[in-house]
């Protein structure tokens, strides 16, 4: 038999060894979250991560946790990363997961691994000349509808919050947290919803987030059941985090009785923690956060697993421009994902990337089809939110 010579590997696909991992904590314009113990603008609740290789290719990711914690996690993870082949994304990410079971599985280390995983997919896309969406499954869509994510306020102020975003072209909104469910006043809760629905009209989609992962959430199953019936009267598309995040039995009961789809899962990490929620039928819509759950590698596995149980996937996206970029690529590759979360008014989304996001004439977000994530932090803009931004971009 003639000898078959395998084709030579393109130079761009030869091993790209990781030489450095840098962290950029974001602070100065941190958006309010509606939490009981509200964050301040200088608090760091998001951090960017850069992974650099010996081929001169860099990838960028985002973690939803304190920059100080991410830096500590990267210090722990660096010995497992330096010298690794950045193009073997899922193997390298799984290596980090496997070697950290005893050091903080599911917490800060998993959040940091999320950012690293996103950055590795960015590198692989740049090395292959493909968008991340094409690498993880192909492009089912070229654009997707963003829902404008806003905090709740007093009823008389809700129109002023949502109307300007409606005028900009948004036709889907999620309102959450704030006073909703926290004042023992059902009339106030309903007045907030009524004011919002009146402001956006009947043609816009509306979702409601109770935010029951807040500290000392005061309500239980009966409140959630009564509230779900009220929300149905206003054509609410889903009821998010209506119960404490560990109350899986109550979620099962609520999902069976609620006239409104029940959504949740943003505080869970790694695919294994989602299994009992799917097996027991606790959610209609699963909402992992790519900057917390373990990155793109974990997020798409959860989306695929959810599909087998007939559960919709809509990623939670209360993070940064790089988190949104990852969500967009996932939205292109997951067959039934028709929405992405967009924090309206956040500097870390609107004033961080080299190319700002913009709605098209139909109120949709185009999904970049360029190598990698298609979004990168702007050095000049990043310098406003983190010290020593120059080092972040240096290998």
Automatic annotation (TrEMBL):
Source superkingdom: Bacteria
Cofactor dependence: Mg(2+)
PROSITE patterns tied to this protein: MR_MLE_1 (PS00908)
Taxonomic placement: Bacteria, Pseudomonadati, Pseudomonadota, Alphaproteobacteria, Hyphomicrobiales
InterPro entries associated with the record: Enolase_C-like, Mandel_Rmase/mucon_lact_enz_CS, Mandelate_racemase_C, Mandelate_racemase_N_dom, RHMD-like
Name used for this protein in its record: Mandelate racemase/muconate lactonizing enzyme family protein
Record domain Mandelate racemase/muconate lactonizing enzyme C-terminal: where: 155-261
Keywords: Magnesium, Metal-binding
SMART domains: MR_MLE (SM00922)
Keyword field contains Metal-binding: yes
Species: Pseudohoeflea coraliihabitans
